[in-house]
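Fold this: P-loop containing nucleoside triphosphate hydrolase protein
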Amino acid sequence: MPLDNIQNIVLVLSGKGGVGKSSITTQLALAFSLQGHSVGVLDIDLTGPSIPRFFGIEDSKVRQAPGGWLPVPVHDARTLPSPKNTNGTTSHTKNGKIGALSCMSLGFILPNRGDAVIWRGPKKTAMVRQFLTDVLWPPLDYLLIDTPPGTSDEHISLLENLLKQTNFSISPPNQLAGAVVVTTPQAISISDVKKELNFCKKTGIRVLGVVENMAGFVCPNCSECTNVFSKGGGEIMARDFDVPFLGSVPIDPAFVQLIEEGTRPVYPKGTVIEGKDISSEKNDINSAGNELLVDKYRDCSLCPLFDGIVSKLVADIRSRNQ
């Protein structure tokens, strides 16, 4: 079975579009990799496949192999150099090593990046099934599945096929670890995401935790973080549903610039995140063109936040598997 090489499967869900599921999935994958875990990302947002863009591998194409498709590699397992701009902070790597990272998305299969996917439900269902049965993943510690918003055909097909494949005795125990639910702080987002939590409850998916995205804005010209969309709604929702709250993630323009332009994040003097000074000099950001995304991400203000989120997820999943 194609999923036999995977130890843990984690869904990234939300009841509302535009809350940043793909951004959260990308950073979870980078954080897992930085902790030494081998990671795969499966993008089943068929009408808006953005994972290739986030990882900077849009021009890559899926290769055929006997029995299925080979996922597109982002980077191999390797040892990273010491971080350049963290001024003595930790490197967020386990023994200085990162795990391999690979992706699969409809974006790699479409002839042109701008092609619209105008499919009815049955074709979407068939595509999701094919992604789960025909992708030949290498041995993975974690497979993250980025989903479209809501509770649509893709979600139902995904769960039916996952439950069918992960119930065999040959699969690792508790292979379907659960779901990370993403929201933003506003009340209108919370009301929609509550439906996703109810969906998880009805379908028996364990909620690993809630991430509150866009909880503040990190000014690129000073060290201040302003709560543009308020803050705390995600934590209150998690408490109401008795599920873990994994943390709040602000908007960081330096991360946007890293994804869009590939430049290493830089912060003005006095920028402190989680008690650590992450300020850097602008002449430090002229990085080599062959530098890995995961290496440059270590200098992002969001890296220590996701390092903490992933540590919570790993501890929770391991405790459940024991």
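The first strand starts at residue 6 and ends at 13. The chain has one domain: 6-321.
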